[in-house]
Amino acid sequence: MLVLATYAADFNAIEYAQRLRYYMPDLQKRGITKIGLILNCESESAKRMVDLVDLDCDATTGTGVELMVDPTGKVGKAFGVGTGWRPDDTEMSPYLKLFGMLFGLGVSKCCAITEE
Q: Do 45 and 55 form a contact (C-beta atoms < 8 A)?
């Protein structure tokens, strides 16, 4: 299972990491033995986030999540992950972009695989 998350300080990424920690035993019981988490940040930021949420990232034990970083977001873009509202606009204040995001601007469709 591969989770493509946003940057390490994003609430969604933190919540995904917390849920991975909580559901890992159940996922492993269901046969999902390899779990990867990709964060759009530098290595130190990713390590700090998983430490804060107490997510086991020791993939060598066979019980942890393999933590990977993609500072440019290239991998997520290749999978069609949305880049948000006005991602390349360097003139607009990032705070205004955040305000727009709170109103749902730049939200892309999300898909999920569900068990039938």
A: no
pTM: 0.73
The CA dihedral of 110, 14, 105, 69, to the nearest 10 degrees, is -80
pLDDT in tens, 55-112: 998 766 667 899 999 998 888 888 877 667 777 888 988 888 877 777 777 655 444 4
What does the H/E/C string look like for the chain?
CEEECCCCCCHHHHHHHHHHHHHHHHHHHCCCCCCEEEECCCHHHHHHHHHHCCCCCCHHHCCCCEEEECCCCHHHHHCCCCCCCCCCCCCCCHHHHHHHHHCCCCCCCCCCCCCC
User: Within 13 A of 63's CA, how many CA atoms are on the CB side?
Assistant: 7
